[in-house]
Amino acid sequence: MADAPDALRYLDPASVAQLGNMELRARLIVEGFITGLHRSPYHGFSVEFAEHRPYNPGDELRHVDWKVYAKTDRYYIKRYQEETNLRHYVVLDTSPSMHYQGQGAVSKLAYGAYLSAALHNLMLKQRDATGLIAFDESVHTMRRPKATPGYLRPLLVELDRIALSDATGTRTSAASALDEVAERISRRSLVVVITDLFENVAQHEDLLRALRHLRHRRHEVIVFHVLEGETERRFRFPDRPMLFRDVETGEEITLQPAQLRDHYEEAVTHFSDTFRRRCLEHDIDFVELDTNEPYDTALKAYLDKRKRLV
What we know:
Layout: H1 4-8, H2 13-17, H3 22-37, E1 49-54, H4 66-72, E2 76-80, E3 87-93, H5 108-125, E4 129-135, E5 139-146, H6 152-163, H7 174-184, E6 190-195, H8 204-216, E7 220-227, H9 229-233, E8 242-245, E9 252-255, H10 257-280, E10 285-290, H11 296-309
Parallel strand pairs: 3-4, 3-6, 6-7, 7-10
Antiparallel strand pairs: 1-2, 4-5, 8-9
Helix pairs in contact: 3-5, 5-6, 7-8
């Protein structure tokens, strides 16, 4: 464990972006987060010891505390604060709009990849099975959940490849991709969706329906809505004529940002509030993330959700 000040700074996306590999990024984000929790109510990061109980016939010998036996000549089993295993999928949007960086330290895609890596690390520390799904127009990456520590490396290699990939002309089709995810996940799982929700406005109902499809299949769902706050939420571009291009359709428009800023921010706020309300109606957690902000908001939301399920 790095010391507290050093570990905590790795919750900062700018600091994370300077690290050399995905494994180091994932580890330090999680270590910084755990350091910041102090005496938290969250348990199970390393399946932490809680108490002893007497040995009963049929208990696994690997759980016997042999140090206690040496002192007392009695068999005791070590009990843990977290003994419930879950299955998780991190579902990452890799469409062209996710490559946007704006004034953030990293692009939305890199932010999502680093967050995914930290979540996989955190899940495996809790002995949960974790898997990865990535999509644009359709699902293009699917790694089934496993709970073995050695599974972390292939997941991080995949995420590193995704984070370094170039944007293509492929459009987002989150609704159809999430429908596909719902059909392909057979066992009840916690599904963590990381996306900027950059769908055509006409497709928002389809996207909500696809999220309901996941709930209909009895999956628990968290949606992390990732945007670059300064420009995508508050439209704080320089006050001069600017050309804006849709990275997925190629459509262009020239405008003076100041003339649109108030209306734009109001529209984004209305969309987020409406989407959150519609999600909550179906017990779907909706969390807004800013690529300028630390990762702890997302990690706390995940742990809150997990705590309600065990």
